[in-house]
Fold this protein.
Amino acid sequence: MPFVKSGRIAEDRFVRIADDAPVPQDGAVIVSGARYLADAEALQTRAAPVGVVWPNNRPIAELAPYLDRIALVALVFPGFRDGRAYSQARILRESYGFKGEMRATGQVLRDQFLLLLRAGFDSFEVSKDADAAAFAESTRRFDVFYQPTGDGRTTALRRRLGRALPERAGAGAHAL
């Protein structure tokens, strides 16, 4: 399965570990959300990075206490009509301040790539090589946006007014 990170086709350094398989001491691993919650203490003692595949039908709040020790959260898109992982991504970035890698996995479609970036995803498991190439192109095509989101890109308003706007106290300060 092609893997895209930072707008490029890349090699995935994380290895998925089945729930019933032993977790190696070396190397970056990804475990299921259920396994992480059950073995959080043991997994946190590993020197290598740990990632979690988080299903879109579980609240992100359950994972929140561990976010400072998790290197990657993979959010699942089980079908193209199920966009709950978009909301989870925004909550992770904007409410919980998650700075680690956020991966989209499952039914990740070509026409959603830019929206996934805007929601805060920075790596993607795609099903076709052609989709991976199209994704790399879509990240370069658009660079100005009107709405602020979890990806931290400068909005069109901030570009027009200058990148370093002083924060104002009072009503409306958050609107910029």
